[in-house]
Amino acid sequence: MNAEIEIGKDAHGTPVSVDVEELLATRLLVQGNSGSGKSHLLRRLLEQSAGMVQQVIIDPEGDFVSLADHFDHVVVEGASYSSREIEALAGRIRQHRASVVLALEDLEVEQQIRCAAQFLTALFDAPREHWFPALVVVDEAQMFAPAAAGEMAEDTRRLTLSAMTNLMCRGRKRGLAGIVATQRLAKLAKNVAAEASNFLMGRTFLDIDMQRAADLLGMDRKQAERIRDLQRGHFLGLGPAVSRRPVAVHIGEVKSGGKNGAAALTPLPQADAAEMGELLHADLAEEAAEKVHQPPPPPPPAPPPVEELAQSMAAKAEPDETLSAETAAGDVDSVLAEMAAEEGATFRPIATSFRDFATRCRQQGVASAHIDMPTFRRMFAFASAGVGALEDGQRERVEAMAQGVADDVLAPYLAIVVSAARGNGTPDEEHLARVYGTASPGRIRRLLEHLEKTGLISVHEDFGGERTITVPGIEHVVA
User: Fold this and answer.
1) pTM
2) Measured between alpha carbons, how far is residue 71 from residues 62, 173, 435 in Å?
3) How far is it, in rounded angstroms, from Cα 405 to Cα 414?
4) What is the pLDDT of residues 305-333, one digit of tens each?
5) How far apart are CA 32 and CA 11, in angstroms?
6) How far apart are the first and last CA of the chain?
7) Quick one: which of 363, 313, 303, 309 has its CA closest to 130?
8) Averaged pLDDT score across all residues of the chain
9) Rounded to 5 degrees, what are φ and ψ at 55?
10) Which residues are bridge partners to 469 per DSSP?
């Protein structure tokens, strides 16, 4: 799968791309003054990668809720849920791999910070089996990782700094790739900014921010003046996921839009001072009197229950759950066969292969929520050994023979059984090593000894070094 997305073009009109897989491993820092196009850049990045990877957006201003109009993002209104519900939702978001916008605009600043911190901490603390790759975008990151103590309570500051530090420093091993955006580098905690290996720097005017941006881009003081001269929507990029050398990029168009006010001039109303004065004062006393006696506004609609929101996430994560069991099983088998045929597939850690399997199933609309990691491990062993190529009756008998075989030796045992069932005799060590996921001949010898001691195979080696392997019960498969 091509993991690159185009975010814009350089000065020569050449597309500038971002490698999403590399971004997951190296994180991103975006800086730009208000009006530099920082939110537009984030929106472009999110839109282009929406079909590739799970996305979680911390949105303090409600700028990104419009993503739900064009993509399968779930908007979570932070003001509508308690602390425990927010933490429970975060766990379910990781479990169901839902793309979510956490909208915080209806909360006071300190409440926004606490809500986001608890949410990020719950994402970080998810069980190991839910460590799927996800982009976690934090807009206005200087609020959530301040460089100095401000007016917020000390316990809130410690809570949010811990959450942001975990995201940027330790999140990678848990599949969380932090993307932090800030107006002021000088206001962002250094231990958070320092963990990013990719940078997109927009227009800034203060010398301290300009110099820090230039230092991160490897530019001298004279070259740093370029940052002050950048136009809206233009950024300087550097990093393993963007470019090995600083590159100027003009960010491309987006589908969704924010709720910012119009930046362009609009014609003023054609009215003189007298007419405008009449408009301003007409029925003013009556309107003010009505507001004094106006009944209180109706209460806001109740938020959707946590269970209902979780069901919605699960439905989006598994859109083809209505398929028949036979069709779904066949689709899963094809995904497994595709993975097993790839070079070096058996040499990857089983957790990595399981996450890759879940990603492919979701992209192809295959229902896979019923398959956990132990089940996947055995199914992948069957696919790696080529059991799927046998006839239906043979497959059933091979599955019966494999019932009591341990997971760690199942794939090479099945490879021996399949070779015998096809009449090909004993598979060579190279084939067993590939299925077993090793390059060590010694491990293959120890494997055969173990299989023989457990009674699964019988090994005969003549004086010339020729090895013959027989499998008890194979006659029932061949017959």
Assistant:
1) 0.59
2) 16, 27, 40
3) 10
4) 656 666 666 665 554 444 444 445 558 88
5) 19
6) 42
7) 313
8) 82
9) -130, 135
10) 459
